[in-house]
Amino acid sequence: MQLSELGKGYSAVIERVGGSGALRRRILEMGILKGTRVYVEKYAPLRDPMELIVKGAHISLRVEEAAQITVREVVAGNFHG
Amino acid sequence: MADSTLTIALAGNPNSGKTTIFNAITGTRQKVGNWPGVTVEKKEGLVVKNGYQLKIVDLPGTYSLTPFSIEEIVARNYILDESPHVVIAIIDASNLERSLYLATQLRELDCKTVFALNMMDQAQTRGIKINAAKLSELLDVPVVFTVGNKGKGIDELLTAAIELALSERQVTQKRKVRYNLEIEKAIAALEQVLTDPGLPYDPRWTAIKLIEDDGIIKERLTAVAGDKAPALLEAAQQQRIYLMDRFSDEPEIVTTDERYGFISGIIKEVLTTSTLQRVDISRTIDMVLTNRFLGMPIFFFFIWAMFQVTFTVGAYPQAGIEAVFGLLAQGAGYLLPEGMIKDLVLEGIINGVGTVAVFLPNILILFFCIALFEDSGYMARAAFLMDKIMHLVGLHGKSFIPMLMGFGCNVPAIMATRTLESKTDRILTILITPFMSCSAKLPVYIVLAGGFFGARAGSVIFGIYLTGIVLSIVTGRIFRSTLFRGADAPFVMELPPYRMPMLKSLMIHMWDRSKLFLKRMGGVILIGSMVVWGLANFPRSGDLQAAYSQKTASIQEQFTDRMADADATRKSELALEQQAVLSDLERDHNAEQASRSLLGRLGHVLEPVFQPIGIDWRGGIALLSGFVAKEIVVSTLGVLYAVTDDPQANALQSALRAAGMTPLAALSMMVFVLLYMPCLATVAAIRRETGSVKWMFFSIGYTTSIAWLMAFAVYQGGRLIGVS
Questions:
Q1: Does residue B268 sit in the same domain as residue B299?
Q2: Nearest C-alpha of chain A: how many angstroms from B296?
Q3: Distance from CA of A31 to the nearest CA of B (A)
Q4: Are residues B171 and B189 in the same domain?
Q5: Which CATH number belongs to the domain containing residue B157 in this structure?
Q6: pTM recorded for the entire structure
Q7: Which of B82-91, B167-176, B399-408 is the most confident on average?
Q8: Mind spelling out the 3-state secondary structure of B134-199?
Q9: CB within 8 Å: A57 and B385
Q10: pLDDT of residue A9
Q11: Are both B313 and B439 inside the same structural domain?
């Protein structure tokens, strides 16, 4: 499943960060790495970008970028990672 | 010992409280400048502590030291080239993991590092506990607790930094990140080759950078190693190919992963999060401010409120400033002998600068509001809310920030495009930012809208601003699909926790930017006013002067006669009448003089260009003079419409109406002012930031064309539907 398909209020573990070059590395550097649990805090009013909580920080990411990220272990509910 | 200076650099993530700590250390003894060659802001401060002079350098806020953005390159180059005695890594306690990512990279660079564990109080309310002693032991770094906004721990931090600077302490290898076996093998192999040519940096670090395919380090290596370079780079490439094959991924991705792996090991030992009730006010605020339904209306309300406050509250101190300039003009009038110098000082300098100075309160308030957005953390939310729209233009939500700053002044706004990572994004943002109506254009709107639209002036000005925004989106879209095809920059952005802005920091922010306006008033605007005055007053026509003196004399004679046989009340009535007739005569004379002047001739030549958009030759001249600085448009109008007396907007408005300007023409002029070529300072900034004269001329050309077309549409369209 892709991160972009995750609804508001769901969390999942990062399986693989796809994409290439600087964007991919920047995503990793912000702490969105394999094995990290991310929580979808919300989507922006215009449905894009999305706001994630990763390692306690709030990070925003475009839906098309989140579509490059594969996730597993999707669970519903609040998560404060 | 006081003569020995120690250099201390501050490094940290954006929003880690780095600036707050810098302000707490240096107070107001700051020197703001630019990093050499680039326009990223450089802040330095000198303080004396324990008998040592400390030079504190605030490095740009970054998440990493990989050379992606200019900020990162600047920060890294400073540490590599200037070798500061100590680097203080500001660690945001609520964001330990990511803060350590930057901090471990600093340690890899082999510089002496002190950790400032900042904002522990906030972290505690979120249930986070950090074992500082353990952290210090594991990484072999001094750790000091600080609370920047309360000035806590600053003394201890500096003392620790001085101690470390003086110590012989070396960073031990075992405290650094160890990578997996394959990568370590590659590093070791490269280190062997790298010890050879006597390279400036630590061999291990250089080896890691080569494995990560770091462009800047490769370039520098080539410069230093000379003919040995190709062999070195070839060896590095071999290792990269091998590792890529081995991990089926780029080595720099693997090293990023492993650094975080190393950090998570540390985190496990030093960080405990309690499962107790966590208070996260920031999240609660965001439930409202970035809410699906409320977010956008609130955002637009904030922007609207910002402009309302700027205009209405800013209007109060204006009377005072007007009075001061009135007094100045009066004083100079008494002191100076009649003649050209007096004219220059009164009409050129005091009048010219005065018309602009009255807008200082507006500009201060606007910059205060923008600083408030930035310091509170709302600016990032603005980018979050607006990204979808910006993305339609093909821009990053972050581009919204420079564009919003464009409302204040285009010069810092264009400098702020440095925060954008992609060069095409930067150029595109630079090209459309001038449509964000800067505060210098505001005086023009206030005069025109105030004079012709009465109570609806506020709405008209709002509409003008809105037009600028819409046009920037439309042109951005067009450029993106023609000149700048290709992928946009990634939108990976942190939404920092909301913070209560500190008054001191707001003031510093506001003042830094307003200073620019004041400097221009003393420099460009002063000179501009004098040049415009000169152009408007020369050549002096002797005939005209003589005729004017003659007329004045004859009127005076007339009134003297009439007053001779009148009673007391009639006399004072006549005196007033005489004054009115004389001032009318003077105005007409000045206008006549202006029409025959150099400026007037130029205006007449250009009349065919401005006529179709409803602007007469005087308006045309004012617009031309606005190239120096947009505020000058108003003062030039003042000179050309021969407004006598003190520099009051009201007087100019009546003069404009008397000269036959219609509301439609005023609207057309406002549209033209909104869109036409940026001012001198902005053009210079565009040239510097795009690094090309081509983009500068392109910007001047297309903005002016669009301005003319839009003004034409407004004026002729308005006339077609019968508005005047």
A1: no
A2: 7
A3: 7
A4: no
A5: 3.40.50.300
A6: 0.77
A7: B82-91
A8: HHHHHHCCCEEEEEHHHCECHHHHHHHHHHHHHCCCCCCHHHCCCCCHHHHHHHHHHHHHHCCCCC
A9: no
A10: 92
A11: yes
Domain containing B196 equals 181-273
Distance (Å, whole) CA B449 – CA B457: 5
CB contact under 8 A, B68 and A22: yes
Q: Which two tokens stand for residue B301?
A: 């309300």
pLDDT at A10 over 90: yes
Evaluate whether residue B515 is within a structural domain. no
Between strands A37-43 and A10-17, the pairing is: antiparallel
Q: Could you tell me if B15 lies within 8 Å of chain A, comparing CB atoms?
A: no
- Classified by CATH at the fold level, domain A3-76 comes out as SH3 type barrels. (2.30.30)
Neighbours of B500 (CB within 10 A): 8
Residues B421-450 have a mean pLDDT of 87
- What is the Cα–Cα distance from B264 to A34, expressed in whole angstroms? 13
The predicted-structure confidence for B581-597, as pLDDT tens digits, reads as follows 887 787 777 767 777 88
pLDDT of residue B262: 92
A46 and B388: CB-CB below 8 Å? Answer: yes
Read out DSSP for B233-276? HHHHHHHHHHHHHHHTS-HHHHHHHHHHHHHHHHHHHHEEE--S
B195: domain CATH number?
1.10.287.1770
Query: Tens digit of pLDDT for each residue in B252-304?
Result: 899 999 999 999 999 999 988 875 555 678 889 999 999 999 999 999 898 88
| B706, pLDDT greater than 60 | yes
**Looking at beta carbons, which residues of chain A come within 8 Å of B291?**
45
- The reply to whether B282 falls in a domain is no
Q: Alpha helix (H) ranges present in B336-456?
A: 340-343, 351-357, 360-376, 378-393, 400-405, 410-416, 423-432, 442-452
Residues B594 and B702 in one domain: yes
Which residue in A13, A25, A50 has the most chain B C-beta atoms within 10 A of its own C-beta, making it the best mutation to test that interface? A25
Q: Which of B146, B175, B204 is the last residue of a domain?
A: B175
| B491 and B544 share one domain | no
